[in-house]
Amino acid sequence: MRCRVCRADPVIELRQHNAAFCPEHLLKFCRDQVARTIDRFDMFQPDDRVLVAVSGGKDSLALWDILHELGYETEGLVIGLGIGDYSEASTGAAQRFANSAGLRLHHHDLAEEHGFTVPDAAAATGRVPCSACGLSKRHVIDRAALDGGFDVVVTGHNLDDEAAVLFGNVVRWQTEYLARQRPVLPARPGFPRKAKPLVRVSEREMAAYCLVRGIDYIVEECPMAPGNKHLEYKAVLNDLEVRSPGAKQAFYFGFQERAAEHLAGAAADDPALGSCRDCGSPTPNEICSFCRLASRASVELTGRLAEAVAE
Ligand code: SF4
Ligand code: ZN
Q1: Is 80 exceeded by the pLDDT of residue 300?
Q2: What does residue 138 show for φ and ψ, rounded to 5 degrees?
Q3: 129 in ligand 1 pocket by Cβ < 6 Å?
Q4: From CA 4, how far away is CA 20, in angstroms rounded?
Q5: Residue 205 CA, ligand 2 centroid: distance in Å
Q6: Residue 112, Cβ neighbours under 10 Å: how many?
Q7: pLDDT of residue 269
Q8: 270 has pLDDT over 70
Q9: Is the four-CA dihedral 171, 176, 178, 180 of positive or negative sign?
Q10: How confident is the model at residue 310 (pLDDT cuts 50, 70, 90)?
Q11: Which of 53, 92, 183, 247 shows a CA-CA span of 20 to 30 A to 98?
């Protein structure tokens, strides 16, 4: 196969699109796909201030690069999760990208600002690390977006991620989650607008995009990911995609176009929200779930420090 546009040697073949692209036209294809997604789902406007949540991985750095190239006003946010070398590498890659592109990166650190790390939170709750991590990231991202006056927060979830989450929610028929699985969620009191402009592009396309653009991203996976159901669902869908190219796209966009609206009524009504006694975030309880997690996790950290001192 030759590049679909100019017939040059291709750098990537995309069976789901029955096409191949040379480096130049791969970049254009990815940018066009993102621009089309932003437009199709009315994610944000050309003069909006966009906060890009980055992890130092290929998807979020490619997203930041694409939005910048498309002319949006963007700033980045990286969160120190305290997951050993992985977190340091993650912050380092995000900072290097920001420096090379001349863009502003905000850095928040769980241990410095809230007195715990993701491993502390996992030990304190006895649950999988990803659940404490997700809760913490949502809290920090929401606060940073609102405090910074951004119009929208964007994340680098790609088609593979979103199809895997959708698959997991369908397997268990979690209709409340399905009702909220949209590429854009409007702002609500105390919560910023959120969008996922990469839902039309795959992991492979983003890896190739970074290679062509010379973006130096962290390749290693988070050491706390193994055991995460999400990875199993991705593997199942990857098998399906090999046998039936385009299956992920058909599954995800078929859901958005034909089913999502019918499930809107399954979303639980927002409970009456007050303000968290400790941090002021919206919550139906006296203390929000993030502050409850932080207090349990910091007890765990203090206990471990006391043990270390006694040894
Ligand atoms: Fe957090 Fe889990 Fe992602 Fe690691 S794999 S960064 S613990 S959500
Ligand atoms: Zn709180």
Answers
A1: no
A2: -60, -45
A3: yes
A4: 6
A5: 38
A6: 10
A7: 65
A8: no
A9: negative
A10: confident
A11: 183
